[in-house]
Design brief:
4 helices; CYTL1; Cytokine like 1; 48% helix
């Protein structure tokens, strides 16, 4: 038993622990933009209970689209849904994403397109089928 345990113990000691890398500016923008898009979709589901939601600008974010800054700014400046905590929380996240993108991480971001209409509709999800199902 000792001869088996010793190599295993040495192996465990030789491998340094895997610490997750700290978030980068880019990874924070990317994760927050996904959160905002998901929260917006949940807010749309609540539109039947709160008519003010239909007056909010559409938010399907792509941080690589140059128009995202204007879209975030428009959303923050849009009319309030006064009695809806979910809308207020979303506006706060949008404000935070705008600040991170425009102030702190501006140099870390590369814009790949400037198609403003693309930010009006949900981003299509592509499904890749396994070889045998094609």
């Amino acid at each position: 038993v000792r001869t088996v345990m010793l190599p295993l113990l040495l192996l465990l000691l030789a491998v340094p622990p895997a610490w997750p890398a700290p978030p980068t500016c880019y990874s924070r923008m990317l994760s927050l933009s996904r959160e905002v898009t998901n929260d917006f979709q949940r807010l749309l589901a609540a539109e039947l209970q709160e008519p003010c939601v239909r007056h909010l600008p559409r938010l399907y974010l792509d941080i690589h689209n140059y128009c995202v800054l204007a879209k975030l700014r428009d959303f923050v400046a849009s009319p309030q849904c006064w009695k809806m905590a979910q809308a207020d929380a979303l506006k706060e996240k949008v404000r935070k994403l705008y600040t991170i993108t425009n102030v702190y991480c501006r140099r870390d971001l590369v814009f790949l397109s400037d198609d403003c209409s693309a930010l009006e509709y949900p981003i299509p999800v592509t499904t890749i089928l396994p070889d045998r199902q094609r």
